[in-house]
Amino acid sequence: MKVLRRPGVWALGLLVAGGLAWWAWPTGPQAPSQAAQAATPPPRPASPWPASGAPVATGAPLSPEGLRQREAERQQWQARLAQAREALAAYEAHARYPHQSRPASEHPDQLQPFQPIAEEHPLRTPGGTAMDGVKLVTTQERVFAASGESNKVTVSLQNAQGQALPLRFTRAIVKEVTEPGRTAQTAERPLVPQDNGQAGDDLAGDGVHTAVMNPATQGFASFAGRIRLELWMEHGGQPGFIYFDLMHDPGSAGRWLPGVTETVAQGALALDLRLEVLQAGRYVVNGRIDDATGKPIALALFNEELKAGPQTVRLWVHGRLLHDLKPAFPLTLRDVDGFLLRENTFPDRVMLPRLPGAVHRTQPYVLARFSPEAWPSEQRDRYLAELGKDVDVAADALKRLGGSP
């Protein structure tokens, strides 16, 4: 399995820059990091509109051609003003909250991180012709695995009505994926998916075949890299092929310590998790926040350098976000996942143990405990000032051309 308009030219660049800034974010939502303080707005592409200091002369009398040119320029500046205002409003709305505390609606693909990855594929070999009326339905438990973690894989063949069809595996192996010219460090191992209700298979005879990739017990305990399960199969004389990749690292980044501490700090809700860091480095941790009705309201992000030993991972829920969404209290922190980021290395991460389900339930706060103010930062103020200048330039040009801003 292969796992793995125009709101304004400047708005797009700014929002992208804002989205990337969370990789070096501070410990609290009120104090921007050194990286954020040093950031500068992205360079602007060449503008298709005329320069602000050179509008067509507006003094009378004008020839018919002069009038036509002035009207064309007025329309250009009118369009530029509309886009500048849209860019300003879009960035202002986006920057109400810090990057480590975002509305859940912005990240729908990250709200259920532990659900198996489900996909559909045609039944065919690489470059071959697919069989009509059938499809391979597959799931994979995870893509990255740390020491001791396994990966459950399921495969079933179904017709257009979703009914299971017979499927026979002609070859099934698990192996490491090596770069061209390099020799594998480990031997291939057979791993045939079973439909017998054992060894991870949920129900015998239901047409869903299950295999469990377990590097620690299948000869890959000390291997760091890509492990692949390759499956050759056949149905009614039609051959098929599919593979599943698992990124494995035999090390352990850290282990979670019991307990979560909550505080109201700087007008926001802070949830502190304790982590025993085994390898110093940059840690990325995500937590999902639901309200009392089970509605997802926020994605809390942590991205900081941590030293070895007991450390605190602080997840923020920004006060302005709470005021805007008005969730029903108490809130629930759930489904926490994270990893140690390793730059210029493959695999590029060492996973932390998953914390599935409810991790912590907060007190029943009232909104008045939290600040309704937008996130303050030098970077935000600077970007808003630059976008405001664009609005002023376009409005002034329109005035000189006799138009209404």
How would you describe what is shown here?
Helix 1 packs parallel to helix 3. It is extended and about 85 Å long. The chain has 405 residues and is an alpha+beta fold. Helix content is 19%, strand content 34%. The strands form four sheets. Strands 1, 14, 15, 17, 18 and 19 form a six-stranded antiparallel β-sheet that branches. Strands 2, 3, 5, 6 and 9 form a five-stranded antiparallel β-sheet that branches. A hairpin with a 5-residue loop joins strand 14 and strand 15. The relative contact order is 0.17.
How much β-strand is present in the residues?
25-35%
For the record, the CATH architecture of the largest domain stands as: Sandwich
The Rg value, from CA coordinates, equals 28 Å
How many extended strands? 19
Global geometry: extended
Q: SSE order in H/E notation?
A: HHHEEEEEEEEEEEEEEEEHEEEH
Contiguous helical run count? 5
- Runs in which pLDDT lies below 50 for 5 or more consecutive residues are 1-58
What do we call the CATH topology of the largest domain? Immunoglobulin-like
**Sheet with the most strands, sense and barrel status:** 6 strands, antiparallel
Assembly status: single chain
Region (Disordered): 29-76
Biased composition (Low complexity): 29-39
